[in-house]
Amino acid sequence: MCCVGYLQVEDANDAPVLADKTCYMAEDTEENSDICTFSASDQDSTANDWGKHEYSLVSAIYHGDVDEDVTSYFDVPFANNLGTLTLIEDISLGVDVYKFAVGKTIDVEVVVTDRGGLNDTAIISVVITETNRPPKCNAGQVFFVEENSLTGTFVGTVNATDTNGDAFDAE
Length: 171
Prior knowledge:
Elements: E1 21-26, E2 33-38, E3 53-63, E4 67-69, E5 74-75, E6 78-79, E7 82-87, E8 92-94, E9 97-98, E10 105-114, E11 119-129, E12 136-137, E13 160-161
């Protein structure tokens, strides 16, 4: 007597893996701007539900002079298994003055969850970078030149400042 049996092997859900990442954000970034994108790796195929991921924001801590919770300034929308860190609040405090200081970081904790309920977390470190602004001529400068002056005749010196403190040449 002989028997025939069947063995069915089902795939087990594997947890997604989300790596830590460093991104850069200009000090004058406008609200509703995308800062960076990220995606988890997963041994499961996107053809089954376990390989499909959702991303969510856990927290965002600004490391300025003192640590500050700035979670409300960010969002993590996702589509097609790709997460995006988005600035959703205005960070301008006035003309050329911004909430986040150049060289400081914001650590954003993000969680990825697959459709099987397994998850992983990562830290997206956002480094604040300086925006290079053009020099500005000081207002109220008036120069006069005689009619029929030769090309190259010295007229005056323009006073200007660079808001970044960079050296510059004017011609």
